[in-house]
Amino acid sequence: MTTPNYGSKRVVVGAHYGLRDWLAQRVTAVLMALFTVALIVQILFGAEMGYAKWSAIFSSQWMKLLTFVTIVALLYHVWVGMRDVLMDYVKAVGVKLALQVAVIVWLVGCGGWAVQVLWRL
Fold first, then answer.
1. pLDDT confidence tier of residue 16, bands split at 50, 70 and 90
2. Which of 46, 73, 78, 118 registers the highest number of CB atoms within 10 A of its CB?
């Protein structure tokens, strides 16, 4: 005896990123906010703003590392957001893939440029 078929099985499609991406967006946002607060504190407590002060803020290795970590967090934050927008609103698979590749190339380029700026490579 076979069981009756009451309709087609539900097929769940998509990447199933859900909670992981939601959490990544929140964690990277908090990290960027903390970096912003640390930077504002350094700007407010000190000498008059100018090139010398700005250069001094980013001359220490810990600040370069913190800035780089924040830039990586920003790049990942952007990737998750852009990927979700493209997955939700671009229906043509070829266009979606081309746009995702373009976003990845752009973000990798921005990351490389950030390394050059921070460490003067």
1. low
2. 73
